[in-house]
Amino acid sequence: MEILTSNQNQRVKDWKKLQSKKQRTKTSSYIIEGWHLIDEAQKSGKEFEEIMVVDPDDLDDLNISSSTSIFQITEEIADHISSTKTPQGIFAVLPTESYHEEVPDDVKGRWILLDNVQDPGNLGTIVRTADAAGLKGVVLGGSSVDIYNPKLIRSMQGSHFHIALYSGDLDEWMNKFKQNEIPVFGTELNENAKSYKDVGHPSDFALVMGNEGNGMSESLLSKTTQNLYIPMNGNAESLNVAVAAGIVMFQLVNS
Amino acid sequence: MEILTSNQNQRVKDWKKLQSKKQRTKTSSYIIEGWHLIDEAQKSGKEFEEIMVVDPDDLDDLNISSSTSIFQITEEIADHISSTKTPQGIFAVLPTESYHEEVPDDVKGRWILLDNVQDPGNLGTIVRTADAAGLKGVVLGGSSVDIYNPKLIRSMQGSHFHIALYSGDLDEWMNKFKQNEIPVFGTELNENAKSYKDVGHPSDFALVMGNEGNGMSESLLSKTTQNLYIPMNGNAESLNVAVAAGIVMFQLVNS
To answer: Cβ contact (<8 Å) for B132 and A247?
Structure first.
């Protein structure tokens, strides 16, 4: 175990830089922090490249492989490399995984497709909710958010260790679902839209959610097999996209 | 109309300070920004104390009373006083309202009670969702978040203009609901909890949601008439509190 005490140390600088996509791409690695994410990574059998702790006693609770480099850091360093206000004093660096761009030929099961959802907090919450609802996967389309963005990682709460994540062209994905005779549900109120409660609980579906400001793109909307809406009794004009996705997903899976 | 060009102007400094609770309390006013909130305020018949625009043509789309002070500001000032990265160039100052602390004697209808939900983004999203679901009101208990916190205001998307907001002691509120024979639903998995789908669609209820990290406090949990849980098929351990609140509210109101 190496002991680091200065924010000027090159390793500390490199960890800090992992908050940027550029550094993550360059090193093919990303950083997680806090017990919940560390636990989830371990439960999913992930091996850490590096682990950094303020209190070395914390290492007793970890399964660390022989290839993991271990560092004891100061609270000052923890504050410096953390992306939160109240760091828990435990961090790890993991290799990034390449998210498959190709649509699987035999795509089936329950999926959510996100058209240009940009806010990392909303995006992460949707991935977490899809995981909780037992969906098979999430496809990020048209989004420039990097899957290893620290805010996204935090919002996913470890769900990226459980659920299949793809980034890809939603047009291709929708075609594939339709070829397999799987319903593709859009979400936008129009004259042909049905209430989200009126389509049963199909064992295979693709639910497409749009960007909160602009909704689904017209070209994708025209390719859905059915559009759904959530009837609203009150005065709010719309729902937060992560809340809307949660309401529809839990209804469709009948959970 | 007064034209302001410097961030050093005292008024500009005062607007900037409205991001702090201290200044809001001192002046009994708060700031909103962007067209959506300005529109919602107008639709709800609110009068502005001050209105600030980068482009004076924007004033044509506003109903401004004779008591409103109007300012033309520069983009630099807009950037300075905004709490967002991409300000829309329109701001207004409104008087704060005192949120009633006393529980109404004849409390009925559909309510959500929030036990110590601290994150302003989640809190605001829950208020917005409660508004969309047609609930009668939201009670903030044990929370130190100020209702006029800029992040909360942004997340509510104007719903605080539509739905009754109270801050108060949840213990008292729960007693009042029970005196009126209105079910008080807690949300925590325990041996007596029912699925949120199995309690029908009561026209009067109080739904209590806890803090995401700690759940509902034990003392409140012991006072509920029924605890509810959301069955989860997947691997995520929990849901985001705003998503969970949305799923349960829309089920209870049968929307």
So the answer is: no
